[in-house]
């Protein structure tokens, strides 16, 4: 049987269909190693063409000059169409990323939610009129940058892309989007839906290429005026350095090693459930995973016993099985990296309390599965406690009191998120203020709200996405003074 043609991508009104021998990206289904799809691979030459098409679209098409309610109508329509295709998109997502079915549905809902929310922001956004201090008006206007680049990782396809494209388009920009080579298919679907919803040609161009050539070409291109990146800290640092040299703004959403704290007065049952979903949701492939657990010494044994018992019962399985609680990791290379970290932890003196291996179930033998794993006996300075593993691996450490846990929690280069469980509201407030993190959860974890800003302290990033901050990230401020003087000014 002839292999199916790779999915093309669109450069303005043209399709890049790829010819025989042209490079493709092959997406592998992490559940069984089969081919989930192939797409035509973009090259740096395509970046040049895409930048000029996007500038043409930005300058020629009336998009940024449309009334906000007209722009909002298209964004609402994109959200509506995403929901109308919820199940097929979730099915594609499941094969591209290996996420369990429910998570895939959530990704599509969240993507639609971003378009709906930024449609509302677009329509209700108010520029600032400053109080006059003389014979003039002055005002601050949010203006688009023009052409911006958005680069996304593989862990939440379509949601990550929507989180950037929706506010950037709402602000009036043209967007060049490079998804991860691991999961290129959903971004192409998003571009199709945007075009069908009436977004003018050239305002969202998806370039499914590799980071080191297409991603780097985008960031370094003189026609790109702003870059928004989500991914690993080292990649973010390299992109930030190029952006710094070019003096363009960079929004950087990077990695984490988030502390999750259980105080002795907490509702321990709820805390254990929260800790488990904090680390094992998305098989730990989540930037905000609560991957460093701190438990107060007086309840350490109790909490660990309950945690280990419940982790043993966690259902690792195929993504389409409704009973599955944790699916595979995204690729063989990533699974091996996670397993390598567990070996490092063992070498550092860590004790694996549960997991620490691939599952024995033969039904899972062809995929990239790894058992949910809990390790203790390490010092907070150990590599397994300091480096982002991005898999279902929890390191547990006991602590004495509030001062001790705040010091240990902050003893990391990262600062993306933190969580705590306690019945003492005054302590919750104190600790929330002391923790160096962009998001802090009290008696909940991984709660997320589209209107609440998201981003990192320290090595976890720069800038904030979501909420009104999300629109500001993709806008530059122009101050306009409007003189009303009857007499000529000046000397
Ligand atoms: P990477 O940093 O490896 O890659 C992210 C994206 O950047 C990919 O599209 C990649 O392309 C591209 N890229 C790689 N090198 C360059 C370069 N030199 N210039 C431009 N682009 C480049 O991250 P992963 O995809 O492995 O994702 C996991 C990471 O993402 C974790 O560290 C995680 O914490 C972080 N993350 C952060 C989130 C946040 O909001 N703070 C949310 C989700 C994930 P390609 O893969 O095609 O080569």
From TrEMBL:
Q: Does the keyword rRNA-binding apply?
A: no
Record key words, sorted: Oxidoreductase
GO function terms (MF aspect): oxidoreductase activity, acting on the aldehyde or oxo group of donors, NAD or NADP as acceptor
Q: Which residues carry out catalysis? A: 253
Record field: transmembrane = none
Ranges of residues in domain Aldehyde dehydrogenase: 23-480
Which Pfam family is one of this chain's hits? Answer: Aldedh
As for family, the record states: Belongs to the aldehyde dehydrogenase family.
Please give the name of this protein.
Aldehyde dehydrogenase
This chain's source organism reads Bordetella genomosp. 2
Source taxonomy: Bacteria, Pseudomonadati, Pseudomonadota, Betaproteobacteria, Burkholderiales
